[in-house]
Amino acid sequence: MMIAANWKMYKGPRETREFLGRFTPPDGVDLIICPAYTSLHAAVESGRAVYAQNVHWADEGAYTGEVSAGMLVELGVQGSIVGHSERRQYFGDTDETTAKRAEAALGAGLRVIACVGETEQEREAGETEEVLRRQVAVLPRHERLVIAYEPVWAIGTGKTATTGLCQDAHAFIKSLLHVPVLYGGSVKPDNAAELMALPAVDGALVGGASLDVDSLTAICRAAIPS
Ligand code: PGA
C-alpha cells in the first residue's frame, strides 16, 4: 500500500523537520512525503521518500516560478505529483500540460503520481467515465507512473466517495491503464480502512489529514492489510 502525504502549501522546513522527527511510518506501507518546494531539502534529509507537488516540462529556461525535473533529481527527490486538481483549477494546468509534466519527470528518472478526477458537475451530468478516459488517455505509459483518482468534489470538503463509487472509478481507470491507482479526497483515520480494503485501491493520496502525526500514523495503520 502506498500512502502519499500531500502537504500542499503547509509546513516550511522547520515544521517539516519537527514532523518527520516525530513520525515513524508503520512497516508495510510505502510512505511518501510531498512537501512544498522550500521544504524538500529538509524532507530528503530525513531519509524518507520525497516527491514534489509539481514539476515543469522543460529542462531549464525562462519559466519564472517553475522547477525542473533535473533540479528535483539533484535535490534527492524521488518523484512528483502532476495535474493535481488545485493546479488545474487555480493555475491553468490542463490534460496536455499534465502529460508534458509527467513525461519530463519520467524522462528524468523520477516517479510520477498523476491526478485525475471529475468535478461534481461532471459527475451529475453522467460524464465521469468520459472525463477519466480523456484525462488518462494523454498520460505516458510507464512503469514509474501511478494514478491518483481524486474526485474534485471530495477534495478538502469532508465528502468522501462511497466505497462503491470509488471501487467503480478505480476499476474503470485500471481497465484503461495497468498501473496502481491511489484514492484521494478527504481520506481520514476513520474512513481509511474501508477505502484501502477495496480490491482496486492501491493506496491513498492524503491532504489535510496528513498534516498531523497521529492522524497520518492512523491512516498508515489502516492501510496495512490484516
Ligand atoms: P484532502 O486532499 O485529503 O485534504 O481532501 C487530498 C488531495 O488534494 O490530494
Question: Which structural traits does this protein have?
Answer:
10 helices; globular; 226 residues; 8-stranded parallel beta barrel; alpha/beta; binds 2-phosphoglycolic acid
Describe what you observe in this structure:
This protein has 226 residues and is α/β, with parallel strands linked by helices. It is 39% helix and 16% strand. The structure holds 2-phosphoglycolic acid. 2-phosphoglycolic acid binds at residues 6, 150, 155-156, 184-187, 205-209.
User: What proportion of the residues form beta strands (DSSP E)?
Assistant: 15-25%
What distance separates the N and C termini?
12 Å
Catalogue the unreliable spans. Answer: none
Bound molecules: 2-phosphoglycolic acid
The order of strands across the largest sheet is 1-2-3-4-5-6-7-8
Largest sheet: 8 strands, parallel, barrel
Oligomer: single chain
Enumerate how many helices there are, as a single number: 10
Helix-strand pattern, N to C? Answer: EHEHEHEHHEHHEHEHEH
The amount of helix comes to 25-40%
Average of per-residue pLDDT values: 96
Number of strands: 8
Rg of Cα set: 16 Å
Structural class: alpha/beta
Shape: globular
